[in-house]
Amino acid sequence: MSENWGNIDELIVKHLTNSLTSDEGEQLNSWLNLSSDNQVYFDEVQAVWNHSSNIMAFDAIDVEEDYKQFASKVGFTNEKKNGKKVSFSFRNIAAMLLPLIAVSVALTLYQTTPGFGKWVAFSSSIEVESIVLPDNSLVDLNTHSKLVFEKSFDGRQRRLKLHGEGYFKVTRNPEQPFVVKVGNTEVKVLGTAFYLEETGVNGATNLIVTEGRVMFSSNDKDVIVSKGESASFINGEFEKVNDTPLNRMSWRTGVIEFEKTGMKEVLQTLRDHFTEDIEEIENKAEVTDRVITSKFNSPTLEEVLVELRIHFKKNFTMDGKKLIISD
After folding, report:
1. Could you tell me how many helices (H) and strands (E) the chain has, helices first?
2. Quick check: helix, strand or coil at residue 272?
């Protein structure tokens, strides 16, 4: 860079803070057009600027004064030391900052990004998947679900995050609670078994406890849920009941059970269980007060529909992935 352009670093910083005058803008453009090296230098400065929150804090109202303070802090000034004039360009600053930025980014990725270092991400696709965690706890994931967990449970807690639906069989360890974050809620246990669903009907987060006791919480609210009980978190509140929905875990057990169940609930169960077969339901039939009591073990969709036709005296047909009910 030519000595005739001694103020170019100041012009670049003003450009990055949207503080250039029209004359200064023309001066900067003239310098950029002189050579490709100048453009490379400008790009390097801009890259450092975009990745450094400390430098971004320089963007303020009094550009001239802030520039002097900024330049003074990072060694960007022209000072006399031992009788000699010393000048540091932004390239020197970039050389110093880039390694720090790289370390900071790498540390952030290690601490927060699944697959990079500390965290592992496990996803299911169109089939139910099972996984053994580092502490030998077992997790079954429903289709299209994702579990993120620490590669090694070596902290004070065993921390995980769930997207979708999962069933957890937790290895007991009183010294290290097992904590699952799902949506705006958190489940904390020592050793137990439970079902957890991120977004159910009406956007609720649903919990069913099959063994032991669980603390179900969100911010400053919490509820204790025990074996045989279920709870939901919806619209910022917890709702707890002393039983468990019949078919909430049918994806895991393969069992669909109806006990004096009406049409509306039957259709919701079909949609939840046969997620790969049913994407839409159109009920064109007249309302009926008929109910069904029946149990299916790992049935196909057609096997269920055959029995529903008999019980409800309606037509149940599939058009692609659309279930149509008619009289």
Report:
1. 9, 21
2. helix
Structure tokens at 175: 């010294």
Confidence of residue 216 (pLDDT cuts 50, 70, 90): very high
pLDDT for 188 equals: 92
Residues in a beta bridge with 141: 129, 166
Per-residue pLDDT of 113-136, as tens digits, reads: 444 446 678 888 888 888 888 889
Residue positions counted in the chain? 327
> 79 — phi, psi (to 5°)?
-115, 160
The encoded tokens of residue 212 equal: 């032991």
Distance of CA 54 to CAs 100, 104, 121, Å?
A: 12, 13, 32
Cα distance between residue 152 and residue 110, in whole Å? 13
CA-CA distances (angstroms) from residue 255 to 92, 181, 233, 258? 68, 28, 26, 10
Tell me the C-alpha distance between 309 and 212, whole Å. 40
DSSP class of 115: T
Maximum distance among all Cα pairs of the chain, rounded to whole angstroms: 102
C-alpha span between 216 and 226 (Å, rounded): 10
Q: Amino acid identity of 227?
A: K
CA–CA dist 151, 256 (Å, integer): 35
C-alpha distances out from residue 242 to 57, 171, 215, 233, 277, Å: 54, 25, 15, 15, 32
Q: In this predicted structure, what is the pLDDT of residue 201?
A: 59
Q: Is the pTM of this model over 0.70?
A: no
pLDDT exceeds 60 at position 32 = yes
Residues 128 and 142 sit within 8 Å (Cβ to Cβ): yes
**Is the model's pLDDT at 306 over the cut of 80?**
yes
Whether 76 and 48 have beta carbons less than 8 Å apart is answered as: no
Strand partners, 217: 186, 222
Q: How far apart are CA 15 and CA 9, in angstroms?
A: 10
Distance (Å, whole) CA 182 – CA 306: 37
